[in-house]
UniProtKB/TrEMBL annotation:
It comes from the Eukaryota. Pfam families: Het-6_barrel. InterPro entries: HetReg/Transcr_Mod (IPR052895). It comes from Podospora aff. communis PSN243. This is Heterokaryon incompatibility domain-containing protein.
Length: 262
């Protein structure tokens, strides 16, 4: 799925760039609006997560609002990556069901059997993906709340199989090759992750910047390299995927920069 067909982080600002130093450097217009200060566990191999490499951020405070507003932002983040389900449609209001998706198949199966959800009952072979991601991230704190506190293992009586199938499929995609991140500005989202890269220095890290580059459909994670920047990869930052960051320019909080990339 092409992010450019779903996201519009540039807010309609056309790309403005040029190559320098015999095409070895790229200058692009945009602006830095945030910084990574906390990280979830990186993926290590196929659906394994390095829980010991979680980096907590005790000082993080939500800019989404109160607990319910933060929870709303979280379900958008977990189910909305690549917008996500079926035909690429954005998550619908019923998809807070993610918070009632049992963390293990053994906990989920009785619910499926009692409701005769035959499709979900056949998911045993892949449920370990969700179980392992939850296990690696349950202790990650969002402010003073561990991630586990947002979830329950009980599917409500009015739950329907279509919703839970869509939610399950979306989280399968969201947790692959993406690393959960917390930002200095009080936001969260996903940064790029390579499950087969064993060098921690090559992945996203604390202090990496998050930028809007005009013409780019998603924010970028970039890393200072002296007077230059290095692109680490595309990011998903909840609340900044449809041009909202341009309000930071209008308010004077951020200024347009010409950013040099190596």
């Amino acid at each position: 799925m092409d992010p450019a067909s779903i996201f519009r982080a540039h807010g309609g600002k056309a790309a403005s760039y040029k190559f320098l130093d015999d095409w070895r450097l790229l200058q692009s217009d945009g602006f830095i609006f945030d910084e990574i200060i906390g990280l979830g566990a990186p993926e290590q191999g196929i659906f394994e997560w390095g829980e010991t490499r979680t980096i907590q951020s005790p000082g993080w405070r939500s800019s989404y609002g109160d607990l319910e507003s933060t929870k709303y932002a979280l379900w958008n983040t977990v189910t909305l990556l690549l917008s996500v389900i079926a035909n690429g449609e954005r998550a619908q209001q019923r998809h807070p069901a993610i918070f009632k998706l049992p963390s293990s198949f053994n906990l989920a199966l009785p619910h499926f059997k009692s409701r005769q959800w035959s499709c979900m009952a056949r998911r045993r072979g892949s449920w370990y993906q969700w179980r392992r991601w939850r296990r690696a991230h349950d202790a990650l704190t969002l402010g003073d709340k561990p991630l586990r506190s947002f979830f329950t293992d009980v599917i409500p009586e009015d739950g329907d199989e279509t919703t839970y199938t869509e939610v399950y499929r979306s989280v399968q995609r969201a947790v692959q090759q993406q690393r959960f991140m917390l930002t200095k500005g009080g936001y969260f989202g996903w940064g790029p992750d390579d499950p087969f890269n064993k060098d921690p220095a090559m992945g996203i890290g604390i202090g990496d910047k998050i930028a809007i580059i005009f013409g780019c459909s998603t924010p970028l994670v970039i890393r200072p390299r002296g007077d230059l920047f290095e692109v680490t990869g595309e990011a998903y930052v909840q609340g900044f995927m449809d041009g909202e960051a341009l309000e930071l320019l209008e308010s004077g909080f951020c200024n347009v920069q010409t950013l040099p990339f190596c």
